[in-house]
Design goal:
Strand content: under 5%
CATH architecture of the largest domain: Up-down Bundle
CATH class of the largest domain: Mainly Alpha
């Protein structure tokens, strides 16, 4: 038995790496908005289209991904996802060698393909880690470990891009090639390593009901429908909050490099919040956690919108040292940026709370509900694009009214919308 457990060390390690790659590739899209704006002179809305393409792919691949997983199992689905991820990054890389008239379109295509991969990986990695850990507490512990690594990569990705493009007047896709080399290299190594490793496949019971019937049954639950909308809104809030912050600070004396580090601090606070949420999760209900997080988030965004941008504060961030390395220090930023960064503590614990509330009491409809949830992750591309358009029209700080409205809806869901009013529906 001990030998069998030991043989799972490598696939566990690979799944945790893939957890990080999901975040690495996903969070590459937002800081790439800075590069696109500089190279092609596009608007904030256009700059966020790469991020939108990445997340809209979830709407296309969410349900097919679940079918693929059911038909081919975890290992083959993971291999397909890794291969698609490599192709997606490769296409973005080729954009750097394309003509000015086609490079932007090719980059967007690469971001869209990468989104397919991220959706499939999200479908695979969580349950695979749980299976490799044998379920129960050990499986949950591995998922938490993967989630923490995910947050770490989210913290450093904007910083990596900031270092590569620096504060030059004209950034170019070619400046970000080193990150693309790393991503393609990791995908290639993981593909061949996973190909040669034997992993257990769960033998989930197949429902006798057609998938379409299960999905229509799922949509009879009001609290689930409102919860699915909440996931759409939440992912948009999570991504748009630091994404627009990065674009805004890059146009201030703070500069592109420091802007990337400040945005990375948002993701670092999400890591802290997730660790804290995990520690109190057994004592505090999902409803309470989501309610408190939404209220605090609303307060912070309100302060960010109405505070004068001339008020500066010293924010602790990772930054580039004089010798070219990384060091921890203080960055002078507008106080609005500090309030926005602190929202990361609030968004960190929302996903689990929304999911738990939305699927409560669904019984046999749980699998279908999970597939629908994956589709609604596309909100991470749509809402930031809308916020970018508002920023083009009204300015960066007024664009955070989009985030305010999103948090207001999440508060409504926590307090009112999450109540299961359809307990008369059979779920056995």
């Amino acid at each position: 038995m001990s030998t069998e457990k030991k043989s799972y060390v490598l696939p566990i390690f690979m799944m945790i790496l893939l957890f990080g790659m999901i975040s690495f590739v996903t969070n590459l899209a937002a800081p790439m908005g800075n590069v696109l704006k500089e190279q092609f002179g596009v608007s904030n809305f256009m700059g966020m289209l790469g991020n939108a393409a990445n997340f809209i792919a979830y709407a296309v691949m969410g349900i097919p991904g679940g079918i693929l997983l059911q038909r081919y199992g975890y290992k083959k689905t993971a291999l397909i996802a890794i291969a698609i991820g490599f192709v997606g990054i490769l296409v973005q890389y080729l954009a750097g060698y394309s003509t000015e008239t086609t490079a932007f379109t090719i980059y967007l295509l690469g971001a869209f393909i990468s989104g397919f991969s991220m959706c499939l990986l999200n479908t695979v990695v969580n349950p695979m880690l749980n299976t490799l850990g044998g379920g129960g507490n050990k499986g949950n512990q591995l998922i938490q470990t993967g989630g923490s690594f995910n947050s770490i990569m989210a913290t450093f990705t904007p910083a990596f891009v900031g270092i590569l493009i620096g504060n030059t007047a004209k950034a170019n896709i070619t400046d970000v090639f080193p990150i693309m080399y790393i991503a393609m290299g990791v995908f290639a190594v993981l593909f061949f390593a996973l190909l040669g490793v034997k992993i257990p496949e769960p033998h989930a019971e197949r429902s006798t009901e057609p998938l379409g019937q299960l999905m229509s049954g799922t949509l009879k639950f009001r609290h689930f429908i409102l919860g699915a909308i909440a996931i759409f809104v939440y992912v948009g809030v999570e991504v748009g909050t630091p994404g627009i912050l990065n674009l805004w600070l890059s146009e201030t004396p703070v500069g592109k490099t420091t802007a990337g580090f400040v945005a990375g601090t948002y993701w670092f606070l999400m890591l802290i919040g997730r660790l804290f949420g995990a520690s109190i999760g057994s004592k505090v209900s999902s409803k309470t956690m989501l309610t408190v997080a939404s209220i605090i988030g609303l307060i912070l965004i309100t302060l960010a919108i109405f505070s004068p941008i001339t008020s500066m504060v010293s924010l602790p961030v990772l930054q580039r040292s004089a010798t070219g390395g990384l060091s921890f220090g203080l960055a002078e930023v507008p106080i609005n940026a500090m309030y926005i960064v602190l929202v990361g503590l609030c968004t960190s614990i929302m996903w689990g709370g929304i999911f738990n509330l939305a699927v409560e009491g669904l019984g046999k409809y749980l699998a279908a509900a999970s597939g629908i949830f994956m589709v609604l992750v596309c909100g991470g591309g749509i809402l930031p694009a809308i916020q970018g358009k508002v920023a083009d029209i009204a300015g960066y700080m007024p664009s955070y009214w989009v985030i305010f409205l999103g948090l207001a809806y999440l508060l409504f869901y926590a307090v009112i919308g999450s109540k299961n009013v359809n307990k008369d529906i059979s779920v056995d």
